Amino acid sequence: MLLHTIFVIALAAESMTAALAAGRRNMDWFGVCVLGCVTALGGGTTRDLLLGHYPLLWVEQPAYLLVTIAAALFTIAVARVMERLKLIFLLLDALGLVVFTITGCIVAMEMGQPVLIVIVAGMITGCVGGVLRDVLCNDVPLLFSGELYATVSAITACVFYFGLQAGVPIDLIALIAMGIGFTLRTLAIVFKIEMPRFVYSPVRDQSSKR
Fold first, then answer.
1. Cα gap 147→175, rounded to integer Å
2. pLDDT class for 78, splitting at 50, 70, 90?
3. How confident is the model at residue 6, as a pLDDT?
4. For 139-152, how does the pLDDT look when each residue is reduced to its tens digit (9 = 90+)?
């Protein structure tokens, strides 16, 4: 029950952050709602399509679709106030990352998938929605710009999966995994901890200048 409540809050938060991104690019209200839905539900949808898990989450539970649309429209009304709460929404985005990761792991485990697929399913659920948002906004995805994002998702998935295998009750290990993942993501935001970048500057052939 607690995990489900946090999941709904995370859905709304992800939709609201996407709506703000849409507003920065002067999208119309329909675009705002679409971007909100894609960001909040895109990771789970991609996971379900890849694993053959039907019906899709928002098809089985249309209320989730309504939550994301309502959150996106609410953002339009209070956008000026929300701009002052950037840090809060970064933290809510971190919460969404870890919660979505855990729900993705649960779906894969219920299907009897092996450990590697469970972890990947969790990462897809946690990360792909943000990638789709950034692609639709014509931005370099946050996932690929050095942020500790996918790494946090992978750690969260591993803690959750191996904790369950060790016999820890699911509600407890879910809270532990969320706490570890959220803390890591928050530290990365506050202290600007990033992944090493690959910078390649090809050296021109000197002979070609002659």
1. 23
2. confident
3. 87
4. 988 788 878 899 99
Q: Are 90 and 189 in contact (CB under 8 A)?
A: yes
pLDDT per position as a tens digit, 160-172? 999 999 999 999 9
Closest by Cα among 147, 174, 134 to 10: 174
Q: Report how far residue 179's alpha carbon sits from residue 133's, in angstroms, rounded to the nearest whole number.
A: 25
Distances (CA, A) of 57 to 48, 114, 208: 8, 21, 57
Q: Are 58 and 41 in contact (CB under 8 A)?
A: yes
Given a cut of 60, whether residue 207 has pLDDT beyond it is no
Q: Give the CA-trace dihedral at 157, 160, 163, 168, to 10 degrees.
A: -170
Q: Distance (Å, rounded) from C-alpha 14 to C-alpha 154?
A: 19
Q: Is the peptide bond before 169 cis (omega within 30 degrees of 0)?
A: no
> Which stretches within the chain are classed as H helix?
2-24, 29-51, 57-60, 62-82, 86-110, 115-136, 150-165, 170-191
d(CA 147, CA 141): 10
- Residues counted in the chain: 210
pTM: 0.90
> For residue 57, which of 115, 7, 3, 113 has the smallest C-alpha distance?
7
